Fold this sequence. Notes:
Elements: H1 2-33, H2 40-51, H3 59-83, H4 87-107, H5 124-132, H6 137-160
Helix pairs in contact: 1-3
Amino acid sequence: xxxxxxxxxxxxIGTIWSYVYFIIVNSLLIIFWNxxxxxxxxxxxxxxxxxxxxxxKAGKDYLLxxxxxxxxxxWIWGWRRLIKVNFLNLLLAPVxxxxxxxxxxxxxxxxxxLLKNMGRGKKIEEEIEEMSKPTNQVKTDEEVNKIRNAIAExxxxxxxx
Length: 161
């Protein structure tokens, strides 16, 4: 199914590109040389000029010859380049440009402070490991007994007074 969709996309891009390319090149040729690619009279005039010993003298004539020789290769090159373009990015470009504009306009002078990558003293995993480790029970019992004895002494000292 993907191959069929790629084929349809290629044909659609080729059709649109061919139409646009033909209109642009034909318009340029008509404007600068009064030569139309689809007109048989233009080709007859060019053929008779060449058959009667016409020569290429000016840069303008070289440019016409270059355009006529590169007409097909540039058409194929443009088609191949357009096939590689991601048109979704082109369609979303205005939205992205507007978003960037709003960020530059309102976000640059914002009074809020953005803290990025502040990090931590210890990683969460290390903290969990430390909390889950059993503590030494003997030391804990000794500490508890010391606290109890200190409280008992305080109570006894208060009673004797």
